[in-house]
Amino acid sequence: MDELSVLIGGKAGFGIDRASLVLAQIVSQLGYRIYIYRDYPSLIRGGHTFSIVRASKDKIAAHKDKVDALIALNQETFDIHSARLKEGAVIIYDSDSVKLGALPSRSKPIGIPIAAILKEEKAGEIMRNSCAIGAFCKAYSIDWSLVERVFWKDFGEEAKANLQVASRGHKTADTCTVLELLSKEKLPLFTGNEATALGLIKGGVKAYISYPMTPTSPILHFMARAADKFDLKVIHPENEIAVILMALGMAYCGQRVAVGTSGGGFCLMTEGLSLSGMAELPVVIVLGQRPGPSTGLPTYSSQTELDFASSAGQGEFPRFIAAPGDPEEAYYLARMALDISWKYQIPSILLTDKTLGEGTYSFDPELSKEPREQQEELWDRIGTYKRYQDNERGISPLANAPDREAVIKANSYEHDEYGITTEVADLAKKMQDKRLRKENYLAIDLEYCECVKVSGNRNSKTSLVCWGSNKGVCIEVASSLGLKVIQPLILKPFPLKQFKKALEGVEKVIFVESNATSQLAKEVLRYGITVNHSILKYDGRPFSVEELTERAREAAA
Amino acid sequence: MRELGTYAPNTWCPGCGNFAILNAIKSALSSLYDEGLPLENVVLVSGIGCNSKIVDYINVNSFYSLHGRVLPVASGIKIANPALTVIGHAGDGDAYGEGLEHLIFAAKRNIDVTVIIHNNRVYGLTTGQYTPTSPLGFKGRSTPFGTKELPINPLELMLASGATYVARGTSHGMELLKKIFKEAILHKGFSIVDVLQVCVTYYNMYEYYDKHVYEMTDHDPSDFAKAMARAMEWDYNKEAKIPLGVFYKKDAPSFEEYFVGRDTGKVNRDAKIKAIFEETA
Fold it and tell me: Is residue B192 within 8 angstroms of chain A, CB to CB?
């Protein structure tokens, strides 16, 4: 089969998240490309949680509404999701607790007395997942030795007990179909958060500082676990204000540092962001978007912070904003953001979201680009050191404490070239010009980088325009509808030249955004670019392939 | 004494208590330099307020940061490079108001930085409002009929939060200030020095402090209970004698120690990342 979608659902606390990853790893071992969509409420136990594991022969980065298989660990899962079942669907359910209702034709229900099996095996409730996975593998004729291999890798010491329970599910189930082994290279599975973390590490961060907040907490967890391995300083301070100020203290010492948060935490960071602009201290901020205003929908996704990230912080100062659309781009852009920040001594913001951050994807390192090499400006040790030396490009050479020949003065006030406070009118203007001048050179630098990606049918007169995590679904939909896709990777400074070039020959421009006001469309309108249509979604859920196909077809007509 | 000044014009009011603190810290740094502390290893961090201008007046490394944020900046610097000597200057509005959570957490972590609080018990730069240490009934521009809240006792708070060096001086006691500053800087762990400083323009307590302060001579700073009792002798509100000197001093592990030895640059990150890609596939 070319592709397969499996929904596994239960109550929060059932371990659905982990189960979906184990299932994905098994399917990934057969050579399929994976995408997992995770949907969970903002609570620890109870409430409905589900994941959709989608596997395909081709690389994918979106989920579909309809599923080929349903694993229902409780009644609610069946009741909520049975409408998604395709004809001939496989339904694996706990026959001890789930009563099936109406099913599509040729369905293959497989009831497993999971509760009874767990009781007989004296296994904990969390192992119900393994029992269901065992049944799934039988239904799809997946080689048992492959299941064993994945379990041993994933469960460590608990592998044996889980395998025992899985084997009972396996024995009880019937074979329905065959998920054949593909002759394709197996790819690692990573979330966008993991790829971002690895990109930051590869880019040379010495420290990662963060206060927990969905959807970027997993970066903090990843970094904390990886601290010894990669020689990192990982700190979780009292709040996001401390996060960014500590980071700037480290940047003052010349250390590469990144922080992570979501909209609410970013609100607290804005005074630090502005300080970064004024004191010319670099920092990379991973801003994982989720729906607001305020607490909003904490565990869901949005693209609502483009306006905010673009203008956050008092005063006027240059910044670099990039929006990765998949883990390969996250891995690449995290490194690029560090390089740009440290070369230009400005803050960078990586705009991710819950869909990208917590979604799992097959990650192809070959597809992740190498960032263009950038050099930090270092002091040549001639004359008296001036931390804020004014020069042609506005980039003052760096010295780091301790340096016997340099007194290094950073300042949040307007300051002279030495970093001493000033209120002199001419000097204030000169220094503001110096800081802003860096942006002109950054824009020139970016002309040598791919800031706007073009894919799909390049000859189409109709183009979808998207940014961030909508990339995957747009590319898939565009390929079936014969449309072009334009995806700006860099949002500040806006790559106008490359964007206009991408629009050549396009007569109808359709923006696809996960917000209510079409923030990217508003941005390009400022440059006089025509926006014909915006397809917007702001219920916290990502577009499914079916939904976007429908809406893009209407908009393109 | 080394000349540590800069060309920045001093803009404090004539008679301001900040001059005494400036002279005392310069003198302490000079003396530490004579004893072998390289001055390039010193980083001063200030917040915002009259006091914070001090970093413009001393020719050593500095980070003039934001109101309330002296401690996270100082902590970041110390964690980045534990070999640096990090000294913070903050006002009472800055450290005890806007940045109180940072102060408590710095004490809780016992990070090896020193913070000197220029405590004049009034907002000077914003022209005369009450602060967290102004006495009950203080008439400021935001409280023209007197405050309705009691002050906090910062020494009691710092002791409760885990600070391992807690001391108090006044801007009219240079010798004691110099001594305490030097000792606080040399102390390994979180040091706080609360300096009762006069604000000649908005809250001139010169005579009051002169009449009430006394230097502790019979106090054992290793005894936490006694330190607490001494700290509570004066609550920044009622009429009482005001003890000066070192209230508490204790050796304890400091936060940045945990990070010493990181960033050796010896880890081959590329190889380890590649291994993760391979293991995960």
Answer: no
Interface test with A, best of B62, B266, B274 (most A CBs within 10 A): B62
Distance between A21 CA and the closest CA of chain B, angstroms? 12
Antiparallel, parallel or unpaired: β A3-12 and A46-56: antiparallel
Pairing of strands B165-170, A508-513: unpaired
pLDDT band at residue A148 under the 50/70/90 scheme: very high
Q: What are the tokens at A170?
A: 């396996």
Cβ of residue A187 closer than 8 Å to a chain B Cβ: yes
> Testing the interface with B: which of A222, A253, A404, A417 to mutate, by most B Cβ within 10 A?
A253
Between chains, do A402 and B41 touch, taking CB under 8 Å as contact?
A: yes
Query: Is residue A390 assigned to a domain?
Result: no
pLDDT reported for residue B1: 59
Tell me which DSSP letter residue A398 carries. Answer: B
d(CA A511, CA A526): 15
Question: Over chain A, what is the mean pLDDT?
Answer: 97
Q: Which of A28, A228, A245, A283 to mutate to test the interface with B (most CBs of B within 10 A)?
A: A245
- A419–B62 CB contact, under 8 Å: yes
Distance from CA of B78 to the nearest CA of A (A): 8
* Model-wide pTM > 0.90: yes
Walk me through the domains of chain B, giving residue ranges and CATH numbers.
18-280 (3.40.50.970)
Residue A356 φ/ψ, nearest 5 degrees: -75, -45
Helix (H, G, I), strand (E, B) or coil at A350: strand
Report helix, strand or coil for A460: coil
Q: Is residue A184 part of a domain?
A: no
Q: Do the chains contact at B64 and A239, CB–CB below 8 Å? A: no
Planar angle of CA B141, B22, B217, nearest 5 degrees: 95
| CATH number of the CATH domain containing A233 | 3.40.50.970
Q: Do A252 and B73 touch (CB under 8 A)?
A: yes
Task: State whether residue B103 sits within 8 Å of chain A by CB.
Answer: no
B258 Cβ contact list (under 8 Å, min separation 6)? none
d(Cα A435, Cα A319) in Å, to the nearest integer?
11
Instruction: Give A350's strand partners.
Output: A286, A322
**Residues B198-235: pLDDT tens digits?**
999 999 999 999 999 999 999 999 999 999 999 999 99
Partner residues linked to A490 by β-bridges = A322
Asked if A366 has any chain B CB less than 8 Å from its own CB, the reply is no
Rounded CA separation B52/A527 (Å): 43
Residue to substitute from B69, B255, B268, interface A, most A β-carbons within 10 A: B69
Tell me the three state secondary structure of residue A131: helix
At position A468, the amino acid (one-letter code) is G
Residue A480's pLDDT is: 97
Residues A158 and A205 in one domain: no
Stretch 438-497 of chain A: residues touching chain B, C-beta under 8 Å:
none
Q: How big is the CA angle at A236 (ends A325 and A286), to the nearest 5 degrees? A: 20
Residues of chain A with Cβ-Cβ distance to B63 below 8 Å are 249, 252, 279, 409-411
- A421–B262 CB contact, under 8 Å: no
Domains identified in chain A, total number: 3
**What's the pLDDT tens digit per position in A309-362?**
999 999 999 999 999 999 999 999 999 999 999 999 999 999 999 999 999 999
Q: Tell whether B268 is within 8 A of chain A (Cβ).
A: no
- Give the whole-angstrom CA distance, residue A179 versus residue A28: 11
C-alpha distance from residue B3 to each of A406, B27, B60, B255 (Å): 16, 10, 11, 33
* pLDDT of A348: 98
CATH code, A150: 3.40.920.10
Same domain, A350 and A269: yes
Q: Note down the domain range covering A323.
A: 189-367
Q: Are strands A33-39 and A46-56 parallel, antiparallel or unpaired?
A: antiparallel
